[in-house]
Structure formats: C-alpha cells, structure tokens
Predict the structure.
Amino acid sequence: MANPKIGIWLIGIKGGVACTAIVGLAALKKNLTGSAGLVSQLPQFQHIGLLDWNQFIVAGHEIRRATLADEVLRLAAENRIVTEKLIEQSRPELDEIEQRIRPGTIFNVGPTISSLADADIPSQETPRETIERLRRDMADFVRDKGLEHLVVVNLASTEPPVAAESLPESWAELERLLDDSQKCPMRASSLYAIAALGGGHSFINFTPSLGSGLPAIDELARRWSTRHYGCDGKTGETLLKSVLAPMFARRNLSVLSWVGHNIFGNMDGQVLNDPANKISKTTSKDHLLGEILGYRPNTVVSIEYLPDLGDWKTAWDHIHFAGFLGVPMTLQFTWQASDSILAAPLVLDMIRFTELAHRRGQVGQMTFLASFFKSPYGMSEHRFEQQFQMLEHWAKANADSGRQNNETRDLANKKTK
Amino acid sequence: MANPKIGIWLIGIKGGVACTAIVGLAALKKNLTGSAGLVSQLPQFQHIGLLDWNQFIVAGHEIRRATLADEVLRLAAENRIVTEKLIEQSRPELDEIEQRIRPGTIFNVGPTISSLADADIPSQETPRETIERLRRDMADFVRDKGLEHLVVVNLASTEPPVAAESLPESWAELERLLDDSQKCPMRASSLYAIAALGGGHSFINFTPSLGSGLPAIDELARRWSTRHYGCDGKTGETLLKSVLAPMFARRNLSVLSWVGHNIFGNMDGQVLNDPANKISKTTSKDHLLGEILGYRPNTVVSIEYLPDLGDWKTAWDHIHFAGFLGVPMTLQFTWQASDSILAAPLVLDMIRFTELAHRRGQVGQMTFLASFFKSPYGMSEHRFEQQFQMLEHWAKANADSGRQNNETRDLANKKTK
Amino acid sequence: MANPKIGIWLIGIKGGVACTAIVGLAALKKNLTGSAGLVSQLPQFQHIGLLDWNQFIVAGHEIRRATLADEVLRLAAENRIVTEKLIEQSRPELDEIEQRIRPGTIFNVGPTISSLADADIPSQETPRETIERLRRDMADFVRDKGLEHLVVVNLASTEPPVAAESLPESWAELERLLDDSQKCPMRASSLYAIAALGGGHSFINFTPSLGSGLPAIDELARRWSTRHYGCDGKTGETLLKSVLAPMFARRNLSVLSWVGHNIFGNMDGQVLNDPANKISKTTSKDHLLGEILGYRPNTVVSIEYLPDLGDWKTAWDHIHFAGFLGVPMTLQFTWQASDSILAAPLVLDMIRFTELAHRRGQVGQMTFLASFFKSPYGMSEHRFEQQFQMLEHWAKANADSGRQNNETRDLANKKTK
Amino acid sequence: MANPKIGIWLIGIKGGVACTAIVGLAALKKNLTGSAGLVSQLPQFQHIGLLDWNQFIVAGHEIRRATLADEVLRLAAENRIVTEKLIEQSRPELDEIEQRIRPGTIFNVGPTISSLADADIPSQETPRETIERLRRDMADFVRDKGLEHLVVVNLASTEPPVAAESLPESWAELERLLDDSQKCPMRASSLYAIAALGGGHSFINFTPSLGSGLPAIDELARRWSTRHYGCDGKTGETLLKSVLAPMFARRNLSVLSWVGHNIFGNMDGQVLNDPANKISKTTSKDHLLGEILGYRPNTVVSIEYLPDLGDWKTAWDHIHFAGFLGVPMTLQFTWQASDSILAAPLVLDMIRFTELAHRRGQVGQMTFLASFFKSPYGMSEHRFEQQFQMLEHWAKANADSGRQNNETRDLANKKTK
C-alpha cells in the first residue's frame, strides 16, 4: 500500500458531509465500495495522474464536542445512508482521526451557529490570533505526518451573508482589519481561508459562506503560489436547474416562473432555518436561472427545515413555460436524495483534482472546478454541460504532463519510503 | 412583402401537428405571435441566411375527409391550444390550403390507420403507381406556384415497424419491389419518401415510421442531389431523457431503472393504442438511455391512450439511481405539454434549416438536425447539448456563405418579381 | 319560467370567484352547462325543496372600478376557464348586474387591499355610517326586485387577522365600538356581516377574514332570526387534507411532517402576497391536521404569488409518515386546479342550501355547511366525510318538511305572479 | 407472560409480508417497537377484548427452500426496512418457527410460481390428497401447541385468475372435483382454504387469488361453523383510490380518467410480471372506481416489475377531472412505501379481529373486515371511510360481550396453565 502523503483538512469535520466523506474514503481505501457518485473515477479522468485514495489522510477543525464516531453512528441510525457494518470497518480510522481534530472558530458566525458550539472554542482572540492558531493546527498536521501538500475544505454551516463589495480589494488593506474584532467584517469562513492560503495550502469553499471569495484573499493565494475555489457545492436541485434551464433556452421555450421548494432536516437545515443564514443559500440557488436564460422569470426558492426528513433533501420544482403561440405548459420534478451522499464524493473528487493542480503549478482560482459549484468564483457560465467540458479540457490539457507527473509522483513515493 | 417561393408539403396535413404548424405559420406571417418555441428564431441563427416566414407556402397529402378548418377548430375546442380568434384570422389561408390537399396513400399501413381513411383513397395501385401519383401531386404544386424548392415533411400517423435490415441495401434492388403490392415490404411513409426524393425535393421524417431510413433511399437522395433526415421528433419526455441522462453520466450516478409512463389522447395516441404501431414508438423512446449511459438500466416505456387528455401529453418519469456508497435515490418528473404545440415549431424550424441546406448544396443525411429527433439517422450521439452544438457549428460554418446567399436570395427575389 | 325572487348579494362581485359564479349561474339558467362541480345537484339533494337556478338574481358590492364584463373577459383570456362564447351568451345578464353594483368599504382592510380600491370608495364614514350605507344598498335591492330573501356572500380579498378573542362577547358591547373609527378593531368583512344580518339577510363568509365569526355577531343573527356561516371555502389542498389525514389516522400511520406549498397568481394571490393578509390564510389551512390526527406533526404551509399562473392554483403536498416498525414512507400530491372554477359552484350550492334553511326557520350558525369550509364556525370536526354526512343528514331530516315547503314555495310563486 | 394459545398459520411464510409480520410480532411481544401501522392498536379497539400479542404463535406452509432467517436478512439488506439489530433480537423466534414450516402446494399455480418452488414439494397428489396433507399439518400444530384456535392467512404469490362463475355453487358438487387433478379447476389458494375451513380454522385471503371466494367454500365454512374473508389486502394505491374517489363523488367533480402506474421489485412483483398472474391483480385494483363513482371513467392500471426497487412500491396516479363549466383539472399523487411494512400489520390486525369473531361465534364471511381489502367478498361498498365505520360498529357492538369474553379468556388462560 502506498504511503499516504496528502493531507485533507476538513472544516466542520463532524458534520454530515465530512462524516460521509471520511467513512467513504475509508471504504475506498479498503475496496469496500464502488465508484458510484465519484466524478474523478470516470474513464476520462483515469490517466491524468490523479493520486490513489490510499495517499490521503484526514484531519480538521470542529466547533462541536460530540465524537466523530457518534456523529457517524447518528448518520446511520437517522438516515439509513451508511450501514452499521461499514462504520464498524472504519472504526479504527475514525478513532485515529478523532485525535487530529482541533477546535475551530465561531468568529462572527451569528447566534444560530454559535449556539451549537462547544464552550471550549476560544472566543477572546482577535481575528489575527485566530488565524494564527488555525494555521498552526494545519502546520502541525503537515509536519507530523510529513505531508507533501494539504487541501483545506470548508464544510462548516452556512454563515449569514457579508457585503463582499464593501470589503477592501487588496490584501494589504484587508490584513489591517485583523486586529480589531469589532471592526473586522469577515466571518469564520474567511479566517479559515486566510489561515489555509497563507500557509501555502489549497482551499476549497464548499459552502455559500464568503470564505475565499474576495479579491484580497485571491491576491493572498497568488502571493503564496497556491490555489482556491468555491462556492457552494452544486449537488441537487441547483444541478438540475443548470441542466434543465439550458434545454428551455435551446428550444426557445419561455420560462414564465420557476419555483423551487426544498425541505430537509439535517444540521445544515437547522442552521438555514435562521433567515439570516438562509439568505446566503437562497441567493446562491436562485441567480443562475437569469444568467442561463438571459432574462428573469418569476422565481421562488424556499428552504424549510423539517427535522423528520434528516439528511434526505426533497426538492419540488415547478416550471411554468410558454411555448409556440404562447401556450403555457408545465414541468415538475421531485428530487429525493441524501445531501451528504451527493456532496461527499464531490468533496473527495475536488481534493484529488486540486492536488493535481498543485503539482501542475496552477495558482489562483481553479475555474475548471466550476461544474461542482452553485456560484463558481469568477464565472458567468452556469450551464452544467459547458462547465463539465471545462473540467474535461483541463484534464486532457494536462494529460501529457500528467504522465510526466506520474513519474514524479513515483519518485516522490520512493523518496518518502 | 416578399413573394413566397418555397413549398412545404405536409403528409398528414390535417393532423394536430400539421394544423398547428399551418395556423402558426399564418400567425408568424402576420406578426400575430411571438417566437416562443421556435429554435430558428434564436439569436445564433439570425444572420445565417434563413428565409422569412412569408416566403413559405403550404400544401400536402391526407387520407381523411374532414376539412382543414374543421380539424383546426376541433383542436381549439378540445385542447384549448389555439384561440378562436387566431383561427378566424387564418381562415383565408386555411381555405386556400384546403384546395391544395391531395389524397395520400394507406399502402401497408395496417388496419388501425386504414380504418381512419376516407373511402376515396386509391387502394388498387401498385406501389410504383402510388409513388408516381404522389410525385405528380408535388410536381403540380411546384409548377403551379413557381416554387424554387419543396420540403416534404412526414407528419402522418406512426406505422407498425418494418424489419429495415431485411430490405435490400441498394436502390436498384429496392426499386424492383415496387411492382408487386404483395411482396413490397415497405409502408406508405417510404413511398412518400421515394416520391419526394425522386422528385428532387427535400424530405423530413418527423415520425417513427421507416420513411427514408434505409440505405437504398439514402442512395436515391444522393443520386438526385437532394437531402433527407429523421426520425421521430424529440419534443417532450425523450428530450428530457437526452438532457438528464448525461447529468447522471457526468456525475457517475448509476441509473438503476428509468420508467417513463406517457398518457395522451390525440389521434397519434389513438393509432399508438394499436400494439403493432406502438412498438415503433416505444423502441424509439427507449434506446437512447443505454447509448448515453454506456450501460442498460432497467427501463419501462409505456404509452396509454386516454381520449379525455386530447393533445395534452403527460409523462411521468421515475429515475432510480445509486450514488456514493450505493445509496439509492430518486428523481421523478411530470411533463404536461401539448404535443402539437411542441412539435409544430420544430417542423417549421427544420423546414427553414433544410431550405438553407438546399441552397448550400448539401446532399444526403442532414445530421446537423440530430437534436430534433429521437432516433437521428446515422448518429450514435444522443446527448441533447452535443447534438445542439452540431446545429450551431453547422450554422456558423455556413454563416459566411450565408451572407453570400442572402445576396443570391435577394437576386432570386428580384428575378421572380 | 319561474319568477326569480331570491337575491344573491356578492361582496367582491368583480373578483374571480364572483365572476365565475355569475357566468355559471347564467349558464345554468339557460341550460348551457352541466352540473359538474355542483354539490346541490347530487341525487341525494334532489327532492328536498331546493329552488331552481332561475329563481336567483345577483347584485353586490365592489371596491374596484373595472366593469364586470371586462373582469370576466380577463378571466377568460388569462386563465382559459370560461369560453368567449359563454361570455357572449351571458352578456345581457352581466350588463344588468353591472347596474346593481354598489361601492363597498375598505374600512381597516390594510394597505394591500386599499391600494386596489377605486378613489370613489367612501373613506370618511364611521363604521356605523358604513354599515348603514351597506344595509341600505341591500334593502334597496330587496325592495326593487321584490325579493323574498337575500343571501349575502363575502368573496372579498382576505384581510389581515383580527384578535377575535379581544373583541367583546356581546352585541351590546360590540355595537358601542361602531362610532369611533380609530377604536373599532373590526375590519370591512365584519361590517358587511353586521349590515347583512342586521337587515335580516343570511350571511356566508367564504373567506378567511373575520366576517361573522364572533359571538357578538352570532348574537345579532339570532336576535334577527337569521343565519350565517363560515369561514374560508375548502376547495383544494385543504379539502385533500381533510380527506387524506383521516386515512392516516384510520390506519394508525404516524404523520411525521406535512408540507403544503401553494402557488398561484390571481388577485387573491396578490393580496396574500402581503404577509399580514397571508397569515389569515395559512392559519386556516394548517390547523385542521392536528385536530384530525390528534397530535401535531411538523407542518409548513406556504403560499406564493406567481402572476403567470393566474387562477390556476397548484399545490404540492409532501407527507412523510412512519409505518410499522417505524419505517418512514412518503405520499406526495400535486393539485392543479382553477380556484374560481372550484369555488364558484360551492358558493351557488351554499346559497341554495341557505335559502332552504331560511324557509325551514333555522337560525344562527349553519353547521350543516361545515364540509364547505376550512375553518367551520363552532366545529371541531374537520374530517370531510363526517362533515358531508352532516349535510346529508340535514337534507334528509328536512326532506319531509321539504315536500311541504315545496308546496309553500309553489304558493309563494303564485303569490308574486 | 401470558401463555400463547392462538395459532397463526401463514401460507407463503417466507415471503416479504410474512417475514415482516413475524419479525414485527416478535418485536411487539418484546415491546421493541411502537404501534404505528397497527389498526387494532387504535383507541377505539382497546377495550373490546382483543388478545395480547404474546398469545399468538406462528407456523406455516412454504414452497421455497431458503431459511426464514435468510429471507429476513435479505429483506433487511435489500430494502432497509428491518434493522439488523431487530433481526438479531428475533433470531431465536425465527429458528423456532423454522421448525414448524411445512411444504405447501403448487397445484395449478401456473409456471411462474412453480418455477420458484423447491423440488421437494409433492406434485403427484390429487387435490384431495393435498388438502388432507395440508389439513394434517395444521392439525398437528394445533395439537402440539395446545392451541385454542388457528387463523390461517394466505400470503402466497398471486395466482392466475379462475373463472369463479364456472365453478359449482354447492360444496357437494365442488367436493366431487377433488379426485381428478386434470379436471379440478381450482388452484392452490382454494385447496389451502378448504384445508383450513374444513379443519374448523378461520381463513383470511390476503391475496387476489381465488382462495375462499366461492359460494361452495363459503358453504363449507358455515357447515363447520367457522369464518373467512378476503380478498387482496388494500395497502397503498387502491387504499388511496377508495379515499379519494368518494371526494370527487361528494363534490360532483366528474372523473374523466384515472391512471395508476405501479412499479416495484419484490417477489410479488416478479410473479406479477407474468401477464397471466398480473390480470388477477389489475382487475382487483381497477373495479372499485366505477362502483364508487357510479360511472366508468377511462382507467389504466399498470404494474411493472423493476427489480432494483425491491419492496418499495411506487405508484403514480394521474386523475383528470372536469369541474364547473366543464373545466378540466388534475390531481396527481406519488405513493412511495414498502409493501411489506404496510401489509404486515394489517395481517396481524385481522388475525386479532378474526380471533375475536371466533369467540363471538361469528360464522361465514367477516364483512366487518371490508376496509382491509381491495375486493371484499360480498360487498359493494368500496368507500374506505364507510368500510372503516363498519369495523367500528362491529367493535362497538361487541364491546359488552367483549368484556364478558375477557373474563372467559382469563378463565381459559387459567385452564391451560
């Protein structure tokens, strides 16, 4: 078995998506599961130099106290998405990872998320001190495990929105805000991003929170020759929007209204039940229709928290459209899927792709990951197929150098043995 | 107003799709309706030399006796898809077209279609005599109206399938079968195709019937430097399959089963209620999933005739798929749309595109029209987006010559004045 | 033809439900339509002495300026629910009724409804003066037409809720509040109710507004030996709730959550788009589940205004329930129906039943009408079947006296000739 | 713990419904599960003298070889409806019951069911010999366990239909057919019924097979002073039909068409995939609409076997109806439920009710069980609520004697100790 040398640092490591990714990665390492749901396992990505699952090792930040194993068991009991057998088989890995979990930050996350936090989470730090502490946690992990690279992924609960346009454009100016907790307008997700990128690690923002979605933080990434991308994983209803809206556009069918009603009951849902947090999400789910269609139909996006549904997110979409001679017609769909089961493999995929981008020396925004996100940074293309073709082109473009890099990797593997 | 000089010859001219196309074309000529549902009105097809709606003039074949105006009125009363006002405004055109309708053929169409036919339809002809008669009808129309080109579109009811592979590969051999009504294995749709192509006209098979879908008839088209394409217009449920199946493939979600249940009640439905005719349709609706996904999920396609639904085809699709860790999830959709309203503009679009292909000198199968068909001839690409990009590339490739041809057209316009 | 002598006074007479009821009544009088949707036409109500449609004559109050005929035409054009032909045939009746429409009141109805009102609506009156004016309008109608009885139906837009429990319990106390516009906590719907009941007319509150739903107003009805009932017509989604929830109860299936998402775009929807008005409606739609099931599942009821949907209300309900061994299962339904088409016949039915109750000498709340309402006054039975059986029992109980009364009616008919 | 003395004899004891009933009964005995899904646990049935779950003991017939425990585990693994923990806790009971399973019969069941059978199933017997053998199996169980009564339930796969009207009306005549395997037109289900009723046991036919649904077999039941009922458990889609169709009738909404499309993949589905067997089921699911509505709308009932769905039966129903002024509207529902989880508790409920009917001395058809069946014997009432009220009336009518019988039961309990 290959010696693992790439680190995965999960922020919100005890949440549903993280737990599923951890159990899934353990299952992949032991060949206990197939490749369903994993984009990076598609044929077109098989010979471009992606690392084996065995070469990844997990740690992370968390603000809640419960043990990882308990959270995974809860996921199994409440949602029937992970079998008890699989959890048993991953048990040693879960216990190991538990040792590597460090307290995160709840800086400026709002009352709903704060209320979930363990009392131990440091709360008297300045933003700069928090960043320092988070960065140290990551650096310790890299050093202790002799990691070649670390990919940090934000999977923490959705924060209330920040008026990004009011933030300074340059890192120099932004950096000056870090000493005053009162005046610093950023939230936890951006502190994590700064800690990660400032440490030279890659950063992926899987949530609608601000994270690294700022010119000043992009500048930081470029300065440290590292890379980042986001935001808000495109897993279900919005994925369908980005697939179906182009069809209406291609056929010149005029969308009159598009209603999307989402119900679910996991912790993500509990946090989104706070209107302040929800607005980040609905905005992210809604904007792409206008950008794909070229006009703004009437839209409603609602998200309701129903605890009995657990991780099983159900979306009902009703699309009212006019065809030839103005005749109104209707498409409705219902999407019933486990949010964690959809999201976790995409997180693993993006970590693999990001690690490859690191070896390719790519810096700044990883726009080739656009198909994974509801609101891809720096990107007005929202059609899923076009976004996916960007990923394929990127993969193909790097296939030759991929082969070279496989050799490099083999060398590197030898070096660390 | 420009002098119309392109003929449209509709086979099954009193059916729902044809009636809607006729009323719609009349409305377009008078600017009484918008461009919704018309692909050829999209921005990317605006400067490639397509003709104005005013330049088209309609005639066709039919086997039923009722007047065109009555059929249009029935469409309005039963299906609420065309307003009485619009029909009134098209009345003069309907009466004019009525004069140009000629009796079609029911050669070998099976008992269900035959039972709909008027007693006057000639039934003692050999296939060769029928073809001669049909060709003469078309030629008379071209001559009487001084048409520059004629596009023939098959909109007649779906025939029972023919074992196409058992038919001779060359036109020489096929041609020999035309004298013996007993031995000729083709059905009406192919006789229409032979009449059209043998007369140098373009031929489009919008139905699942065999039509021109034979090497021997393709050879005939090439011999007479004309063009054809089919088959089976992709308007609703299958369109969605060709849009959604790629999404499952891209995300490596494993489709376990795909059930499609279609209910509707127009004349098309009445004919498909005969199992012999239905098999042509369900085969056409079903095969593409395996071709897009690369494996065969469990599938069911059913079509049921419910007279009360009229032209409003409702499809319920249930897609059962496995994601990460093998977890089963579900997508369901319901599509409620008027079949004629979806199909009619596509017929008009393809006529415009075909007329342009004629001026470009394109011969044989028009594969750039693949996105319009459930079973595009000579084509294994069934993903809608990829098919549509073929249309866009064709349009762009011809844009320059398009400008030249606009001039040609203008000249031609002058010539005929 | 029998001489009409029963008056129908519609409050909000130019709204969708009223317009549909008016056109429908005209069609019924001329035998231009069948009995679909009319409860009072069921066999079990055929020999209990209900009056013929010909004996009813319509007038009403309105706050908007547009003509009745224009509103009816708009209904036809936007919603395709009434044919142009039918409108033409009702034209004389519409013009006649137009002459009988009087300005209503916008007392305390909130800004959203007020903004729809014509400038002519008197706004400087005290509540007492308004009641007087409204009562005079009704009395004039009764006198002018020689009516035997008048049934007043509130079909006006939904008002914001009133804290009914804070209102005085007796009419004597309530009556004292009528002189001070500032202190009178009632809204327009209750002023109409007081005007109607105080005039000895029957009153039906088809909306969720407070109307006659107060002990003090019920006292007024009893004092004047008249009758009233409400509130909030049960036409679609809530009807289904009252039919399906008992099934879950009967089978001991444990409802975990019931989500109802309603979208529509008529004027009712426009007014409900104001959260203050919407709360009256969602409360009315939501409470019955707990009362039928005996426990409170998680519920969401949302109503969204999508102007493109017009009168076509679409409801998606998602019911998550646990069965044997705690296994979670799901029922979803989609209800697509024209609100006015569902409501209008119920309005006509209740008018017939109410008129009969008047002849029977019934006074106070007409609980036998419970099956027509989402929130039937003084009633904890919300199961539709049980409510309907109350109507059947009432009908049967009165069948004998019904026969007597038929004679009375015949006598009365003679009298007026 | 009370001494069990009532026997449950399940025909098809290794099928999904039986396995779920067995595990569920074990869980109820140990208080490991709640009462969800159990009708007999409703408040109105609490003081009528029903026996405790602890007093029931299970045995049965089966034609397949696999062990009960394996079948239960498969149910858990494939359908996620029973937890592994619960199975573990029921393990001793499963092993005990395994010892009491006897080979059934495949007499005349058709090739699809026969192909599932174990080679050991006796196949050279005459019907009379088979009945004798089956009766002996039941008698041995009663004797060995000292049972006070035995309730036999047919849960075996659906047989092809039998032309019941061609069978003799009297037992004397029917009995004469039992010696000739070639001429005996009955199938296995009726042989089981004869064995049970002839042995004085109660018989419940939960399937659409003929079973005891014959005058001649009803005569046999009466002769032996025992009781029986059927057929075809009403668990899902048809239950909804019997709840929703009355609503359309009550509101005088005219049902134009009702389409029901059912998909599932358990063994029941596998057998129904044979058109000969399927016809028994679709007939049973379809007839009640006409009987409830009083007219025959267009209907389609389809059942498709999709192995990937396992026990999760999904039904999509599309109801097209006309309301006031003939306006067409639509209700659609999707029902997603585990067939076994819905059916098993009803089986247990009916066993309890039947045992009570035995103590009450009721003989012949148990019409008070109509609400549990799609095609209740001797019953034209198909409305669920009315059927359920029959059960409630029966329960209430027996409540007093129920109290007496509780005493009897206590005495009986003492007697057997």
Residues 237-337 of chain A form a domain with the Dihydrodipicolinate Reductase; domain 2 fold (CATH 3.30.360.10). Chain A is about 45% helix and 20% strand. The first helix of chain A runs from residue 16 to 29. The longest strand of chain A covers residues 254-264.
